[in-house]
Design goal:
The protein is an alpha/beta fold. The protein is built from 6 helices and 13 strands.
Length: 258
C-alpha cells in the first residue's frame, strides 16, 4: 500500500508578519522561523499509524515551495516517512490552492497511490481547498475534516467519520484510492526520532521544478492583504446586581453560550 502525505511549510505563529506594500504579499525574508503546518502533522501521524498496523505500507511526503521547504520534508522523514518529494518553486510569493493542488496532481497522477492525506487546512491561508482540488484533478473520491478512519481488511476501501456543523459527525465509506483531509485531534503526532532525523539528513530527496510540470495557469489574483483591524467593543450592564445578572444571563443565552 502506498500513502502520500501532503505537508506545507508555514511561518511560526510567534514570528512577526510584515506586509510588503510593493508586492502585496508578506515579507518572507523578515520571518525568522518556519515550521510544518500543524494539521499536516496529524495527517502524517495517521499515515504512520496505518503503517504500524499493516504490512507492506510505504509513506511518501510531498511539499510545494521554495528551497527552504525541504525542512518540512526532513521533519516528515524524521517522524517516520520513507521518502520525500519537493516540488521546487523559484519564488517566495503567494501560491494559491489551484497552483499547489495542480502541481501535486501532475506529479502523482501515474504513481498509483492508494491513499492521499492532507491537513484539513493550512495555518497561513486557512482555505481548506488543496485536498478537494487535488481529488477533483485526479478524479478520486474524497472526504474533508476527517476525525476517524479505518481501512477495510482488504484495503480496498476506507471508513471515515467527518466533523460537521453543530458538533455532529458524518460517516462515509470510500473506495480506494481516495483523498482525505485530516482534522486536528484525530491522534497525537509524535516527535521526530534522532535516528530518523539522521536518515533524513543523509537521504536524497526527489526534487521536481514546478515550472517543468504541466500546471494550469492561475485563475486567481491576489489584490491586497491587510492587517486585521483592532477593535474592542464592550457593553456595560446597568442596574442592581440582580438586574445585571439577569442581563448577563440573557446575553449568554442569545450567544448560545449556555
Amino acid at each position: 500500500m502506498k500513502i502520500l502525505v501532503c505537508v506545507k511549510q508555514v511561518p511560526d505563529s510567534e514570528s512577526p508578519i510584515k506586509i510588503d506594500n510593493d508586492s502585496g504579499w508578506i515579507r518572507m525574508d523578515e520571518i525568522t522561523e518556519f515550521k510544518m503546518n500543524r494539521l499536516d502533522e496529524f495527517a502524517l501521524e495517521e499515515a504512520l499509524v496505518i503503517k504500524e498496523a499493516s504490512q507492506n505500507v510505504s509513506i511518501d511526503a510531498i511539499t510545494v515551495g521554495p528551497g527552504r521547504s525541504v525542512e518540512v520534508i526532513k521533519r516528515a522523514i524524521g517522524m517516520g516517512a520513507d521518502r520525500g518529494i519537493h516540488i521546487f518553486t523559484e519564488f517566495e510569493g503567494y501560491q494559491n490552492s489551484l497552483q499547489i493542488s495542480n502541481g501535486i496532481a501532475e506529479f502523482v497522477r501515474d504513481r498509483n497511490y492508494d491513499l492521499i492525506l492532507t491537513g484539513a487546512m493550512s495555518e497561513d491561508n486557512m482555505q481548506g481547498q488543496v485536498g478537494p482540488m487535488l481529488a477533483s484533478r485526479l478524479g478520486l473520491p474524497w472526504a474533508t475534516s476527517v476525525i476517524s478512519l479505518k481501512l477495510a481488511t482488504d484495503k480496498n476501501s476506507v471508513y471515515v467519520e467527518r466533523e460537521i456543523e453543530g458538533g455532529n459527525r458524518d460517516t462515509v465509506v470510500l473506495n480506494l484510492p481516495a483523498v482525505l483531509t485530516v482534522q486536528s485531534g484525530i491522534n497525537s503526532p509524535r516527535y521526530p526520532s534522532l535516528s530518523n532525523l539522521l536518515r533524513a539528513n543523509r537521504q536524497e530527496l526527489k526534487t521536481i521544478r514546478a515550472k517543468d510540470l504541466a500546471v494550469q495557469a492561475s485563475r486567481e489574483d491576489l489584490i491586497e492583504i491587510v492587517y486585521p483591524q483592532k477593535s474592542r467593543a464592550g457593553q456595560v450592564l446597568q442596574g442592581s446586581q440582580e438586574a445585571k445578572a439577569a442581563q448577563l444571563l440573557e446575553i449568554l443565552y442569545q450567544k448560545s453560550l449556555l
